[in-house]
Amino acid sequence: MPLSFDRLGIAGAGAWGVALALAAAKAGRQVTLWGRDAEAMRQWRDARRGHRLPGVELPRSVAPTSELADLGRAEAILLVTPAQATRAMAGQLAARLPPRPLAICAKGIELTTHAFLTDAVAEAAPGWRLAVLSGPSFAGDVAAGLPTAVTLAAQDEALAVALAAALKSSHLRLYHSADPRGVEIGGAAKNVLAIACGVAAGLGLGASAGAALIARGFAELRRFGEAFGARPETLMGLSGLGDLVLTCSSAQSRNFAFGVALGKGVPLSEAGGGRLAEGASTAGALMALARERGVDMPISGAVEALLAGRIRAREAVSDLLSRPQRAEL
Length: 329
Prior knowledge:
- This protein is of the alpha/beta class.
- It has 2 domains: 7-178, Rossmann fold; 181-321, Orthogonal Bundle (N-(1-d-carboxylethyl)-l-norvaline Dehydrogenase, domain 2).
- The protein is 49% helix and 12% strand.
- Strands 3-2-1-4-5-6-7-8 form an 8-stranded mixed sheet, with helices on both faces.
- β2, α2 and β3 (62-65) form a beta-alpha-beta unit.
- α7 (180-202) packs parallel to α10 (238-247) and α8 packs antiparallel against α10 (238-247).
- The longest helix has 23 residues, at 180-202.
- The chain is globular, with a radius of gyration of 19 Å.
- The chain starts with 6 loop residues before the first strand and ends in an 8-residue tail after the last helix.
- The mean pLDDT is 94.
């Protein structure tokens, strides 16, 4: 019998979690939206509005809650917490609920363990069927009903097909994949590369430099992905090249904006402007894994060095430009 999911849970009520709740409701699903902040969830429940996405109103098919047990009503759950909190959140779900499909919607690599998020969640929630959702998407665009396409991947392709069908609507198109590793690598690496593009923009280096960084950054992403078993077509798709282009070229991207601030000389502690830039936490883990496999990633390495305070923004650019000439690979 084909899988189907009429009741979905969203674990995480930030902007992306709310946007996905709206998308699921538009797809005709009953949605339980969980957030840790009881007052914020009361506001969503009573006023149907919240500060995360101003102007957005939740339909009645979305039930906000701060009680984790309420996610037990869901047939599948989307895990929409920051990358570095994903393992802990998965562990809380596993401690309170029986196993069910769980789609990871964060983009990153664990800083402390250098684990990919699917591996971290598999350890924290054994027996749960895992998927990954990623691709070129801004929460505001999805919440506003603007056309968006993303990838949903699982080793069990039937699960990926069913979850994609449960979320698809007139404005959100989902492509299914059996390559979750490739999808999560694209989502993690592009955040680090977006910081580099933002730095170049902040330094006023021009559009040509930005285009070069995107192209050479994709070469790094491809080398890294291939070293860890990602499929080439995944890296060339929405969750790889597509997400890289979006994140590296838009001020809506928190990672790009973070890099712009660094390029303009804003101190590291203030560059985020109070918003989370996942690439800042991922850079060190990404480069540690790259070194283990002997993957050449000069742009990502420059971002790592910049964030560690070992180099300044203009020095990073100068070092990249002074690398020995070589054939384009």
